[in-house]
Amino acid sequence: MSTATITHIVGARPNFMKAAPVLTALRAHDVAQRLVHTGQHYDALLSDVFFAELDLPAPDVNLGVGSGTQATQTAALLTGLEAAFTEVDPGLVVVYGDVNSTLAAALVAAKLGLRLAHVEAGLRSFDPTMPEEVNRRVTDALADLLLATSPEAIAHLAREGVEAGRIHLVGNPMIDSLVAARGRLDPDGERRRLGLPERYAVATLHRPANVDDPGQARRVVAALAEVGEAVEVLLPLHPRGRAALAEAGLDDAAGVRVVEPLGYVPFLSLVAGSALVVTDSGGVQEETTILDVACLTLRESTERPITLTHGTNRLVSAATLPDAAAAVLEGRAAFPTERPPLWDGRAGERIAALLAAEAAAGS
Questions:
Q1: Half-sphere exposure (Cβ direction) of 52: Cα atoms closer than 13 Å
Q2: Does any domain span residue 304?
Q3: Is the distance from CB of 153 to CB of 121 less than 8 angstroms?
Q4: Per the domain annotation, does 179 fall within a domain?
Q5: Cα–Cα distance, 39 to 274 (Å, whole number)
Q6: Is residue 337 part of a domain?
Q7: Total number of domains in the chain
Q8: Are residues 117 and 266 in the same domain?
Q9: Is 29 a catalytic residue?
Q10: Residue 9: helix, strand or coil by DSSP?
Q11: Fewer Cβ atoms within 10 Å of its own Cβ: the N or the C terminal residue of the chain?
């Protein structure tokens, strides 16, 4: 008996690194796959380059929804995904992470009675102001198969009443992509290409709480400028964030150099060679943990607490960032040495086996 088609939904930069190892590992199973790219991230620097660098196949469907407000973008995603799922029955829908594409695909799958698997299930920041937290909770409530990257995620799902048989600890497929790319990283080459000094920091900023609120944006820029007095800070920045932070005085921060968004391998190369990373990204917290690079996360909470207990991550505010950065740069910061369980580069294989079994069971 043939298995149902497994349809993967990706839409934004973080999805691509998580999906690539799963699609690759599923090739060893007798199962049909389709890839739907919603186009939530649609420009070459945030989308096309990742398909090339991660060896992702060309999407079978590209919805091209583009950007917009939370409501506008989600509405476009719902409409586009309903049409895509109605045209070709997905059998099993696989969603990744916590972006709007994840939420929309989960809602459409539930409405159409399709089975749903969530990769990176159970992560919780417990911050209801984060759109991603809403996306995570709703997606997990609708999912049939919940694939967790860390033990605390399983505990969160258990407390929310999810049946134990639907939850599986699989490890982190984003780390699979990092492990696969590690041999291609060239920290010195990228540093020289950008004319950076031997010691530098990397920063990423994109969350509305840091970028969209004018008062907080000013505080963040002032803190980054202070860090930039001690070490040059490279800040790859999307044009939308750049405009908001420029209003907050970023152009006057002499030690902070703003560049266009970087591809996967160039960005990881620079992170690997850096003395320090400042970020509000979830994925960067994980990547720095495996690369053994100190990471200061500009947020009040993280849905990835394992990067605090088993990694190189620390939570900071704009007020505490300069002192925390100084502690790292002066060698006064200590981090745990034990790394998260199953972050071993084989999560994609474990996920693929579970997806193939689920697809076969539903045929």
A1: 9
A2: yes
A3: yes
A4: no
A5: 31
A6: no
A7: 2
A8: no
A9: no
A10: strand
A11: N
Give dist(CA 197, CA 110) in Å, integer.
52
Q: State pTM to two decimals.
A: 0.93
The string of DSSP letters for 323-335 reads HHHHHHHTT----
- Number of helices (H), then strands (E), in the chain: 16, 13
SS3 content of the chain, % helix, strand, coil (to 5): 45, 15, 40
- Pairwise CA distance, residues 114 & 110, whole Å: 6
Q: What does the pLDDT look like over 17-30, one tens digit per residue?
A: 999 999 999 999 98
d(CA 290, CA 104): 31
Residue 189 has pLDDT above 80, yes or no: yes
User: C-alpha distances in angstroms, 283 versus 4, 115, 272, 302?
Assistant: 31, 26, 14, 11
CA distance 246 to 239: 10
The active-site residue, picked from 29, 156, 206, 238, is 206
Supply 242's token pair.
Answer: 């750049």
CATH number at residue 312: 3.40.50.2000
Q: Are residues 120 and 34 in the same domain?
A: yes
What is the Cα–Cα distance from 42 to 38, expressed in whole angstroms?
9
Q: What average pLDDT is seen over the chain? A: 93
Whether residue 46 is predicted with pLDDT greater than 60 in this model: the reply is no
Rounded CA-CA distance 138/150 in Å is: 19
Structure letter (DSSP) for residue 339: P
Block residue for tokens 């992170």: 271
